[in-house]
Amino acid sequence: MKKIYYTRLVSAFAFTAALFTACSEDRDSNPVLSEPSEFTLNTPPLADANTYDLGQSKVVDLTCSQPNYGGFPLSTTYTVQVSLSEQFAEATGDVAANYQTLPTTYTNTVMSVSAEEMNDAVLALWGSIPENEGKEFPESIPLPVYLRLKAMITGSDNRGVCFSNVVTLPKVVATAAAALKVPTELFLVGSMNGNTYKPTGKISGMAGEFWQMVYFKADDTFKLSAKSGEAMNTDATLQDNAASGATVEDDGTGSKQVKIATAGWYVVYAKVAVKSNEYVINIQINAPGVYIFGASNGGVWDYNDSWKFTVPGDATGSFTSPALTAAGEVRMCVKIDGFDWWRLEFTLYNGAIFYRGDNNIAENWATNMGADYSVQGAPGKVITLNFTDGTGAIN
What we know:
CATH class of the largest domain: Mainly Beta
Strand content: 35-45%
Shape: elongated
CATH topology of the largest domain: Immunoglobulin-like
Mean pLDDT: 90
Low-confidence stretches: 1-26
Number of strands: 30
Structural class: mainly beta
Largest sheet: 7 strands, mixed
């Protein structure tokens, strides 16, 4: 076990001076940092009896003891390493290491390890074995998987690095099927837009939640798509907040779609989550409210009907704002109950409607994104928006 005098490590680990009262002239009485060679990763309870189905699980729970760094309360960062061999081997020359290090790190001795990350590691390790080249991964056959932890002092330059013992999960089932993920973009496709894939706006700061202003003719139908060109089975939980007559129906192929009975403009809200590798979809049909906020309306920062756009009568028409009353940056948004206005914000960029999404607009569009993203108002100016072709103007 190596020992390093703590006086050389004060700046790296930022202990408080109150912890150390040793005489400065007596090196041996100063606190000493020990660098352990190992620590204990506990075998999960009932590991021998359990089958770990990584494709159907969210996490694999692990616990460990903290490395003994000489009794100091040092924050420790742990990484999980996975192998198909009980003997972990480092890379040598052209030969890769026989283990994978999972990307998520942990700072607690109780860890909920991502089953998805572990699944990816098992697939990569199995595919790296020469005799498996060209073979299909045996999804239904449990494999033994071996785990160990790497520890190091948090925030240090690889100080206190040590490895745990190896534990065995005797029966692990991985899946080669691409695991579904919460989408970072979403498209609407249906009869209302000629079955083209139209991108939606992401709701700012909300994973898997999107909106779009859409005109539907009577009995138009639509589906959602997480990837342009691939419509998903839109078997949604549906909430109709706008008397649209929306229903979920079979599309004739065994898949589901949403049908809108009453023609008109609507704000479609969609939330797409993933559970047990299947999409879970919630859709709301909302009234088509578009509003102006901020300096250009005299400083009104809430949903005020005096600053609501008029709604056109068909798909080709434009939403039209009230005449602005002041100079300053125009802030625009739609309304969906339960959301802050800024999460539903958009602007105009080179004449096109541009959704805020997850862009950080901490101050305003001009400051945080640039002048081209900032619509500057003036008394008497009017804004028009054509959501069908995604364009707008101020005149």
